[in-house]
Design a protein that fits this description.
Distance between the termini of chain A: 34 Å
CATH class of the largest domain in chain A: Alpha Beta
Low-confidence stretches of chain A: none
Helix content of chain A: 25-40%
Mean pLDDT of chain A: 90
CATH architecture of the largest domain in chain A: 3-Layer(aba) Sandwich
Number of helices of chain A: 10
CATH topology of the largest domain in chain A: Cytidine Deaminase, domain 2
Oligomer: homodimer
Structural class of chain A: alpha/beta
CATH superfamily of the largest domain in chain A: LpxI C-terminal catalytic domain
Chain lengths: ~270, ~270
């Protein structure tokens, strides 16, 4: 590829990408504080797609990667440039079908402009996991039953573009991930009244939505996910092998070992 | 029917049933404070199914109704009587398939004992709603799209015995009801960060799970649901006609009118 442009959202993924591609252009957005010494950076705005495309072209960028959450940014139509005024109605319509609709429309807009849109997992080796136990103790038989049930919930919701995560404890669904994300769901699970929870621990399953374009909004876990899962009293976490980003693998596995949570990667059924 | 036994959980439903069936035997459980002057009452325990069956038979009870949530009670095996020791392994196994599995097993145990298990909606006229707008303003076109999407989420999850409620706002799923119930989900929705919510209001859809036995754990809404939906910033609520209990209909509709929330009953698709 000629040159990579990293369109940086929050979290540690943008930094991992920049480290693996030191010559990339680092595009950051207002409100997302990023400091990457030695990397060429440019400030971008989703209100001004025309300026964004022009800046990327001017820097010789041919391939782009969306790194970190692209949570619906707060957009002020008064600030739109001509290109964004052209694109916005399509984005708005696409949003009605859920976040994936919007993200697919954003990818299509970049592709129409001549950029190749790449997935973070293609650009950094080892970002996803091979099948097997990655950390922590062995799951119990009951944990595996809970994991299968959580996976069935995700499979049922995937075609509706909902849910990259679900928690089941002793057969009882305690959380289904919605737009607020995994950590918010785990805080919700942590607040389950004791009379309902009955000391059941439970399992978090993380996987992409069926048919999800992994080039954007790929599910990810990191040390913070382990901490949130431990705070929610879970027994462990199952991620889909090859299709969930493992951010800071050593720290993540170390945190799971320390918390006594199992962390397993499973091939899709 | 010869005599009704009301197995009273929490909420206002037990009182509504007792008012409609003043000669019923009122069975209440430790920890659930109930006062119903003029009604014959007996204290029961889910730890002692043998004693429960004997007390109901002795009072001439032939038909029973489970009224109010039968949240998994905290059970101490040391207190089990012989009948419960016999039933408990089956209940435990049934729980692994979700709450409906447990509830079906409990119904089967009562039926095996010769009781007819009735649904609250059969015993009190007017507890469910006919299709149409019950209260509040007319929904917008966007509200109806959100409602259809929330309904699709429930339809997808129903076969898995998850979800009697879901919230969608501007196409974005913000809540899927799990074991913690509707009010907990609405509190979760209320906490959605503004940058995600983007001033979208949203719609709550309540419906029974596909294939759900309405004789137990029938979905219900009441004035508290309206208050929680208003606190979560929703535009309105859609319930399934004929299959969702409308507790204290006047107060519920009055609260919706006052809060400016639409309340609509829709026939199942």
């Amino acid at each position: 590829m000629a040159r990579l442009g990293i369109l940086a959202g929050q979290g540690s993924l943008p930094g991992l990408l920049a480290a693996a591609h030191p010559k990339a252009l680092f595009g950051h957005f207002a409100g997302l504080a990023v400091e990457l010494p030695g990397t060429e950076a440019v400030e971008l705005s989703y209100e001004r797609f025309g300026e964004m495309f022009a800046a990327l072209h001017a820097a010789g960028v041919t391939d782009v990667v969306f790194a970190g959450g692209l949570a619906r940014p707060g957009l002020n139509p008064a600030n739109f440039d001509a290109k964004m005024r052209e694109l916005a109605p399509g984005f708005l319509a696409a949003m009605q079908g859920g976040d994936d609709g919007l993200l697919r429309a954003v990818i299509a807009a970049f592709e129409a402009e001549g950029f190749a849109v790449r997935g973070a997992h293609e650009l950094v080796p080892g970002l996803t996991a091979e099948p097997g136990r990655l950390a922590g103790p062995s799951p119990s038989g009951g944990d595996l039953v809970d994991a299968a049930r959580a996976r069935a919930i995700l499979d049922a919701l995937g075609p509706l573009d909902v849910g990259q995560g679900a928690v089941v404890a002793d057969g009882q669904a305690l959380g289904v991930e919605t737009a607020q994300g995994t950590d918010a769901m785990l805080r919700f699970v942590a607040e389950t009244p004791a009379r309902l929870r009955q000391n059941a621990r439970g399992v978090l399953v993380k996987a992409p939505k069926q048919g999800q374009d992994l080039r954007i909004d790929m599910p990810a876990i990191g040390p913070a996910t382990i901490a949130a899962a431990a705070a929610a009293g879970l027994a462990g976490i199952v991620i889909e092998a090859g299709r969930v980003l493992l951010l800071d693998r050593d720290a993540t596995c170390g945190a799971a070992d320390e918390a006594g949570l199992f962390l397993i990667a499973e091939a899709a059924g």
